[in-house]
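Dear colleagues,

For the upcoming journal club I promised to circulate an example of a predicted protein-ligand complex. I picked one with adenosine-5'-diphosphate because it came up in last month's discussion. The inputs are reproduced below in full, followed by the predicted structure.
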Amino acid sequence: VKLFYEGKAKRVYGTENLNEVEIEFKNSLTAFNALKKGEFDQKGAVNLSISEILFAQLEKAKIKTHFVRKISENRIRALQVQIIPLEVVVRNRIAGSLAKKMGLEEGGELPFPVVEFYYKSDELQDPFLNDDQIYALKLADQNEVSNLKKQVLEINKVLKPLFQNIGIALVDFKVEFGKTPAGEIILADEISPDCARLWDLKSGEKMDKDRFRRDLGQVKEMYEEVLRRLKTV
Ligand SMILES: Nc1ncnc2c1ncn2[C@@H]1O[C@H](COP(=O)(O)OP(=O)(O)O)[C@@H](O)[C@H]1O
Ligand SMILES: [Mg+2]
């Protein structure tokens, strides 16, 4: 197997099937565009299992994903796609960079889910892009952008109540999409506590990568707790 790409949290390998890749989930953890680095034992396996459960729920709701099957505790088979270099974010509440740039406290409910796009580039620190910038720079056309918005809002419609049912607020999350050889845009990459804000509904405790970013401790324990609860859905 040939290593195609090594990222911050995963490795992507080619397979004998030209339409499929193998994705290995690493134990590493990075924040602030890789300026801060860490890891914990079983992190890859926990994130893989969380992603697997969420992708299965999305597939049940007729949202297409790249997931094919689990190969081992830290590897999956996925459809190879051409990743659209946009991080697609949905926010249900004010937190993170939105709170920071507006000088607002975290936690306020937004009146509707807010979709944002960021250019996927560590060197440039994932800059925010508005729709016009995306079209003018030919990162995606109008049809593609409306497709991405529609899909990510559907994903939010599935995931928000799913987390609500296990006592977790889905504050915000980021996903990546890719194009299949047939030109279809499908959900790729992962959905895990690395790319979502998950707050315990009762205690307000953070159950996501902010524990690592902000040195709150119990990173592993909280990721494991998210998985434990998801196994009950
Ligand atoms: N199905 C797929 N086909 C091809 N590339 C993918 C697929 N799913 C995810 N990727 C890409 O593989 C890489 C995953 O590794 P990751 O560690 O998340 O990288 P990064 O540090 O760039 O975020 C990302 O660049 C992601 O866009
Ligand atoms: Mg990534």
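Two points we might discuss: The longest strand covers residues 168-179. The first helix runs from residue 43 to 60.

See you all on Thursday,
B. R.
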